[in-house]
Amino acid sequence: MTPAARPSAGADWRDVPLAPVVLLFGPEEFIASRALDGLRRKLRDQNQELEITTLDAATYSAGTLGMVASPSLFSEPKLIEASNLSSMSDDFLADALAYLSDPAPDVTLTLMHGGGTRGKRLLDALKAAGVPRVDCLALKKDQEKSAFVTAEFQLARRRIDAQAVRALVAAVGANLSELAAACQQLIADTTGMVDSDAVDKYYGGRVEATAFRVADAALAGNAPVALSSLRHALATGVDPVPLVAALAMKVRQVAKVHSARGSSAQLGRDLGMAPWQVDAARRDAGHWTAEGLAAAIQALAEADAQVKGAARDPLYAVERAVTLIATSARR
């Protein structure tokens, strides 16, 4: 590539730059798909006659890349999407290295690598050439998922409050594609500011959302609401295991911030929490003494073992833990 064709590496998956070659690297298929969709839109905006070809690097045959990259009869621009680079054949590695030294004009080659070290020579060559690399990494922390939700609403020029973001991540945050779909549904089906009531209307029946409500009420010392929410959940068949897990997560967060000093942003970085999680945990921490937290942690450890088979009545075990926690907190 010529120096003028060398964009900076580390590209944003929401705005992939146009370049002769682009690397999508990482295991999160949803982010890779969104990045590729955005790149297709950009190229089609330039020319509706864009020709798209897909290649599987794992089953690739020598010479195919050069053939599909060669000019067509009417010289339409081309997008070549090569997937499965983490299982690439030796033929693909050789052809891709050769192609990188002399990319075809009016062709965009996207290389999708799921992670790992397979094809390290190619990865090193792409880095040396300044090829833009889009990291497609799984969003594992609630802080990352919360930022994702906020960005989805900002792109749609809509607002969602912090409590609603928290509730949505708690309800559907396990899978990024589901979380994105939930954002789009709320954007399409609501008007104005999206609040936690709107999230509860659409997703309140999910196990995660139910656990979220029980845990919030228990940590705040609101025993009537915590127990009524819990009994409704258990009566409708909710497994007690995620309920205990949600309570444990909440108690751990309160314990982390109980004696901590510093800004929400600083503590969030130090403790691996989002700033709004720090703020919420601090509010709950006001209801607790160190001794009360120790008792709650002990009760949850016992409940966790009981709901996983150590007790004959796991439903009673989780209700006892919720009662103990909710009545130990100071109103």
From TrEMBL:
Coiled-coil annotated spans: none
Enzyme Commission number: 2.7.7.7
Record-linked Pfam families: DNA_pol3_delta_C
GO biological process terms, semicolon-separated: DNA-templated DNA replication
Span of domain DNA polymerase III delta subunit-like C-terminal: 209-321
Reaction it catalyzes: DNA(n) + a 2'-deoxyribonucleoside 5'-triphosphate = DNA(n+1) + diphosphate
Name of the protein described by the UniProt record: DNA-directed DNA polymerase
GO cellular component, one term: DNA polymerase III complex
UniProt signal peptide: none
Family the entry assigns: Belongs to the DNA polymerase HolA subunit family.
Transferase in keyword set: yes
Organism in which the protein naturally occurs: Arthrobacter wenxiniae
Gene Ontology molecular function terms on file: DNA binding; DNA-directed DNA polymerase activity
Protein keywords: DNA replication, DNA-directed DNA polymerase, Nucleotidyltransferase, Transferase
